[in-house]
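G., the chain you wanted modeled:
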Amino acid sequence: MLKIETQATPYVITLELNSQQLNDLFDQHWETIKDEVEIDGFRKGNVPKDVAEKQIGFEALYSKLIPNVYMEELQKENLDVVYSSEPKIYGSFNREGQIKLTTESFLSPSVKLGDFKSIKVKSDSCILLQDEIQQEIKNRKKKHSKLVEVQKTIENGDTITLDFEGFINNEEIQGAKAVNYKMIVGKTNMIPRFEEELIGLYPNEEKIFSVQFPENYHKKDLAGKIAIFKVKIHNVFSYELSQEDFLKLVCEGESYEQLVEKIKQELLDEKETKKRKDVASEALKQLVAISEVGPIPTPCIFQELDQKLEQFVSNSGKTLEELTTQFPNFEVMFENNNKDLIIEGIRSTLVLQELQKQFKITISEDEVQDVCVKRYGQKSEKNTTHYIVSESQLKIKRTLDKFVDLVLLQSTVNTL
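Predicted structure as tokens:
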């Protein structure tokens, strides 16, 4: 089946500098580096410019100059370049020469937003059930509790030790016998109904009962058959927490009523956060669907694929060579499974960036620096990677928050 994809076309961008422009740039750059230049026979910082240019050479002194000038010119033109090939530089690198730099560059795809003010998402109010509060209290109690032996009937979640033996037609089932077997009732992969039969038994109590092996049981000679099991309970262990420790460790010095209110607010906050996340995902999906996004440059897609592949390999604990040996078409399979998701992710980012312009989102330097300190342990200079990444993520988050607020308001108005 023939598949035709529309791809972005690279622009050829050229920077040309005549000898006068080169001389001006050389002179300006010399002022920034002259104090660091060293040549035998001269003190550091006192090397004459013409001597340095002759002995060290123009390329060694000024090689970084041309790419920097190119980037400055791009910024002046306000060109949003998302990918460029390695610059090709032609000409003579000296005071009489001329320089020509060319790159093949892709600009950020154009985006025409759909009517984001018309987007509606169904979202219910956050309701908290009393059982949820009690379950959270139980979870917190268990976190601080100790597993101790108790004299009580077995309940779901208890740890027990027991002997068991299974029979079919009075013949012992191979592998279905254990002594002092330790298990957590309700959380062990035993035959269906086996664990339910243990509920309510006391320590040292014995019981005989029947269970049926599943029809799809992995041992075909047992599948679907009814077995008789004899069990004897030895010990029952349960998580226990004294009232004193409960007040100290779970309530953290507050009253029980204050703990309940605190948990209630935390659970409501979690529900609200999840609700907003779900609304953001659905609303953004709708907005991308009704927006027009230009062709995405192929290099951008494969850059993302490479990063995702690198992360996958790192998490797998294997090398790319090992994965390729195990799965001969691994890289092709990985691309096929992830390419469409990456394209959709890029489209979503582009739509969000355009929405960010529509909302005129601004972030203060203090806000960016706060994120830098939390994430990297220190403040960052402007125009550094840490600063730019932190600022970008803050803007995206604020854009999404404003978008969600708008969608929720619009959805509420339309249901009144």
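The chain is about 45% helix and 20% strand.

Shout if anything looks off.
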